[in-house]
Amino acid sequence: MENKFLELELLVPYGKRFSGSSNGWLVAVNKDWTVTLYKPYSMVKEGNNLDTCIRLPCIFPIELEYDLDDPQAVFYKSMGIDIENLYDYHVYKALITTDPLANPSECTVVVIFGPCNELAFLRLAQDTTWTKIEPTISFLSDDIMHFNGLFYAVNQTNGELISFDVTDLCDSTIKYVAPEVPNFAPQRTHIKRYLVESCGGEILQVERYIKWNKVDNARMTLLFRILRFDFDEKNWIEIENLGDMALFLGDNSSVSISTSDFVGLQPNHIYFTHDIDLITSASNPTICDLGMYDIERKNYKLHFAIDSTTLRKMKSQPPIWVVPTFNEY
């Protein structure tokens, strides 16, 4: 692909929030609570009529009464979410294990959904309904990853790590893998957590410290902290240097990339977007919390220059990272 330009056609709906970006596909929830996978681009080629979207079943719809006293309605109103558009925020994050067109028999979709950030999965070639993964204790999932054949989820509250397998519907056993992470968050800040596989094949947990400004209806990322999971010690170890790696974080499945393979990327940096969280107004945010974080200097080296008109348009469709895949079907 070096020194080559590809003509691509974008094939995505406008003005819709994407709940995830994984393996080159975007994930969105529809008004009828079904889920659609979108291939956001196609190589412009004569006679290429390949489907670029895949429909999945309805995912545990929420039925709310339009009543000011309904507890769930009150909760969503406090988050700034219009009940009529609740479906748009029903899935918090999504993961696709492999390209659903190239390998449908091996493709599993795992999502974090609902007001309690529950887990559910669907095996594309086997299941006609979604199946919940239910931990034995309260677990507020903040991110998910697929690593060495198992799925992992991190608890937003304390950084605890669990693993589970979905090969057998009758035995999706949950294992508690790692204990909670000591909290070093400054006062009045919120921690958002990400899981990412490093280029060296290790599990990283990234803590993003966020401050919310109610006056400006805006949030700001203060700093990041990175921890590596030690499978021998069953514990988290803080690291302060990623070497030539760069991380891409947001509503997408988190990605690590070796910058030596890509001209223009900064090593030891985190590229981040303004994604959904558990504290800010979801339906009317000020999209501003995006940029590059220099891990060594612990500061923002550069925020992306985006004009105010474009920022306003992002309210209905926040930015999301997409990693292109060019498979032959």
Task: Provide key terms for this protein.
single chain; about 325 residues; mainly beta; five-stranded mixed β-sheet; four-stranded antiparallel β-sheet; 2 helices; globular; KIB1-4 beta-propeller domain-containing protein; KIB1-4_b-propeller
Give me a quick take on this structure:
By secondary structure, the protein is mainly β. The chain has helices spanning 71-78, 308-313, and strands at 8-10, 20-22, 25-29, 34-38, 41-43, 53-58, 91-96, 108-113, 118-123, 131-133, 141-147, 150-155, 161-164, 174-178, 190-197, 203-213, 218-230, 235-239, 245-249, 255-258, 269-272, 291-294, 299-302. It is 4% helix and 38% strand.
Overview of the molecule:
- The protein is mainly beta.
- It folds into 2 domains: 14-133, no CATH class; 179-321, no CATH class.
- The protein contains 2 helices and 23 strands.
- The strands form 6 sheets. It has a 5-stranded mixed β-sheet, with no helix packed on it. It has a 4-stranded antiparallel β-sheet with strand order 2-3-4-6, with no helix packed on it. A 4-stranded antiparallel β-sheet has the order 7-8-9-10, with no helix packed on it.
- It is globular, with a radius of gyration of 19 Å.
- The mean pLDDT is 84.
- It comes from Trema orientale.
- Residues 13-286 form the KIB1-4 beta-propeller domain.
- Pfam families: Beta-prop_KIB1-4.
- This is KIB1-4 beta-propeller domain-containing protein.
